[in-house]
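On clarity, I found the account of how folds are encoded harder to follow than it need be. For illustration, here is how one protein appears when written out as sequence plus C-alpha cells.
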Amino acid sequence: MKTLLKKIVIAILTWEARLALKKYKPGIIAITGSVGKTSTKDAIYTVLDRHFYVRKSEKSFNSEIGLPLSILGLPNAWNNPFGWVQNIIKGFLLLLRVNYERRTTPYPEWLVLEIGADRPGDIEKVSSWLSPDIVIITRFGKVPVHVEFFKSREDVIREKCFLVKALKSGGLLLMNNDDEDVRGLRDMRRDALVTTWSIEHESDFQASNFEIAYEPNDKGEMKPAGIMFKVNHAGSSIPIHISGTLGRQQVYPVLAALSTGDALGLNMVSMAGSLKEHKAPAGRMRIIGGVKNTTIIDDSYNSSPVAATAALETLRDVKTAGKKIAVLGDMLQLGKHSAKEHIRIGKEAKDCADILITVGILARDIAKGALENGMNEKNIFQFDTSAEAAKPVEELLVSGDMVLVKGSQASRTEKIVEEIMAHPEDKDKLLVRQDEEWHKR
C-alpha cells in the first residue's frame, strides 16, 4: 500500500512539475555525472544568483521524487503523509498563479537541476519530459557510483547519455575535458554548442597554477584555508580564490560555473568576484576546526573510488605540523567492483596517511589493501560503525593533526566529524544529514 501511495504522489508531483515548466518556461540547466553534481550545481548558483532569479535543487534532490520537488520549489516531506498532501496542494496553487511579466514572475528564470541515476531507466524516464537548455556532464570515473544496479559501467554512461539526447536543439553542452568518457560524448549532438573545461587538457576554460592557500590561526600557526588557481579563457587569465575547502576536485565545479555564466553573457571578473563568497556544500572537502587544535577535512557526504582517490591525494599534499589521519568508510553500490576498489583505496591510503581508520564491513578491504602495501598494522584501526569509531578517533588526536573523514551515506561518518569538531554546537550549519529525519535513523 505504501509503495502504491508513493507512486501516486510521484505521479501527481511530476504532472504538476511538467505543467509548471510549460506555464513559466524557465531556462533549464541540467547536471549529470557520477561525481561532482552537487558541488557543480552550487557553484553555478553562486555565479548566476547576482544576475538572475535562480532556483537550484535543494541538497542532493536528484531522484524521481527530488526532481519535481525542485521544479515546484517544495520541501521533502519524508514520512509525513500530511506534508505530501500539502506539497500537492502547493503545486496546484503554483499552477493557478497568473503568469506576470518576466521581471515580476513568481517563478525563477533559471532552474539548476541535478539529474541522478540509481537504477536503469531513471534518466531515460526524466528525459521523456525534461528538455534542458544547458546540459553539464561532470565526470564518470573508471568505476562510477551506482554501478551495482547496472550490468556494466558502459550501461551507467549510456543511461546518463539520455540527458544529452534530451538537450534542446541548438542547446549548450558543457563537458569535463579531463574525463575520457565525457570527451567521447562530444559528437552525440552535432547541433549543440559545445564548451569544454579542464585542468589537464587544452580546453575553452582551463585551470592552472593550482595551490593550497594557508593562513595563520590565533597562535600564529599556518593552517589550510582554501584553494587558489587561475582560469584561462579567450586569451585572458583570471585568479580564483575559494575559501573553506580543499582539493583539485573543487576546481571542476568552478570551471563549469564560469562556462555557464559566460554562455549567459556574464563577465569573467564579475563571476570571479561572486565566487569569493562561494562555500562548498556540506560534507564536500570542507575545512572544519577540530578539537585539540586539529584540522578536519570533512568529505563525509558520500564516497566512490574516484572521489576517495581525490580526497586522499589532497590529504597527501596538504601541509600540517602533526599526523595525517584518514578515516574511510564503506563505498557502496559498486557491485562486483567492490572488494577490488576498496583494496585499491587502502593501498593509496598507505602513501597518503600516517594512520588509517576504517568504518564498515566493506571498508575492511581498505585496511587489507593498506596492509598489503606495507602500512604498519599498529597504525590501522577498524570499526564496524561510525558510532563505535567516533570516540577512539578523538582520543588519537594531538595538536597539529589533519583528519580526512570520508564515507558513503550509510556509513554516517558525519557522526565522527561531530565528535571531533571544535564547535559541535555548529553542526546544523556545517555538517550533512542534520535533518530531524536523519537523526531518527
